[in-house]
């Protein structure tokens, strides 16, 4: 699992993989979060198609829209498991088909790094969930956001880091310890980070209701897959 770099420093060969909606489907949990916030059912198709602001404006009542700041904070408190209800809703998560088998295979050839927007307060929960769904949890690295990384998203600090800033910071730290040869992510806007870091195999995991294949490619993906089944037997190669 070692790769020799030009400067003579030996780094672990690493594959970086996102978690939510790449390895674990969160749609049903997101439905639960919206149910708690709005007191009504939001269709799964809407959750998988629209952004957060679009969903709120489409399904919130006029009275709720008038209290948008309050609901914005509650949304993130639930999603980041700062309320017990948010933790309970994790039971609605489901594993993405074939993903666990593929990662078990990859873990025999490289160091797996899970880079997730989940926050440090959910580390034990996240490791337990990965293990429950059959993903490798030994000899891996789990890199997570800090709660402060969401201060801007929650409306608490307009000058705080964006989520892209946070992802870029953490990915840079990963690259200091690993020769990252492959990355898999479902969010197109993170791919400029991976391209700028020189990762040669940048795989977009398609979310067809929300993004097009072209959006991933334009942002820096080198290829796009619709299913983890397409990656069976496709082992990462050192640079």
Structure description:
This protein is an alpha/beta fold and 239 residues long. The protein folds into 2 domains: 2-25 and 95-231, HAD superfamily/HAD-like (Rossmann fold), CATH 3.40.50; 27-92. The protein has helices at 27-38, 44-49, 52-59, 62-66, 68-79, 84-88, 99-106, 123-132, 163-177, 191-196, 213-219, and strands at residues 2-4, 10-17, 24-25, 94-95, 111-119, 141-145, 178-185, 201-205, 223-225. Strands 1, 2, 5, 6, 7, 8 and 9 form a 7-stranded mixed beta sheet that branches. Helix 1 packs antiparallel against helix 5 (68-79). The model has no long low-confidence stretch (mean pLDDT 94).
Keyphrases for this structure?
239 residues, alpha/beta, Rossmann fold, 2 domains, two-stranded antiparallel ribbon, 11 helices, 19% strand, globular
């Amino acid at each position: 699992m070692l790769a020799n770099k030009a400067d003579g420093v030996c780094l672990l060969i690493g594959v970086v993989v996102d978690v939510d909606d790449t390895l674990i489907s969160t749609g049903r949990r997101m439905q639960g979060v919206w149910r708690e916030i709005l007191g009504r059912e939001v269709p799964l198709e809407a959750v998988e198609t629209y952004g957060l602001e679009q969903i709120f404006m489409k399904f919130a009542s006029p009275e709720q829209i008038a209290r948008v700041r309050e609901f914005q904070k509650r949304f993130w408190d639930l999603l980041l498991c700062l309320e017990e209800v948010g933790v309970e809703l994790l039971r609605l998560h489901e594993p993405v088909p074939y993903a666990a088998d593929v990662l078990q295979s990859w873990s025999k050839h490289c160091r797996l790094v899970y880079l997730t927007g989940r926050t440090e307060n959910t580390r034990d929960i996240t490791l337990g969930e990965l293990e429950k769904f059959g993903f490798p949890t030994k000899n891996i690295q789990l890199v997570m956001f800090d709660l402060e990384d969401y201060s801007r998203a929650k409306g608490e600090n307009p000058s705080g880091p964006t989520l892209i800033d946070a992802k870029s910071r953490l990915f840079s730290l990963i690259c200091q310890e690993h020769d990252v040869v492959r990355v898999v992510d479902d969010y197109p806007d993170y791919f400029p980070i991976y391209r700028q870091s020189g990762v040669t195999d940048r795989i977009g995991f398609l979310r067809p209701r929300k993004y097009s294949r072209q959006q991933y490619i334009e942002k820096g993906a080198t290829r796009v897959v619709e299913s983890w089944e397409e990656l069976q037997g496709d082992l990462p190669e050192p640079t």
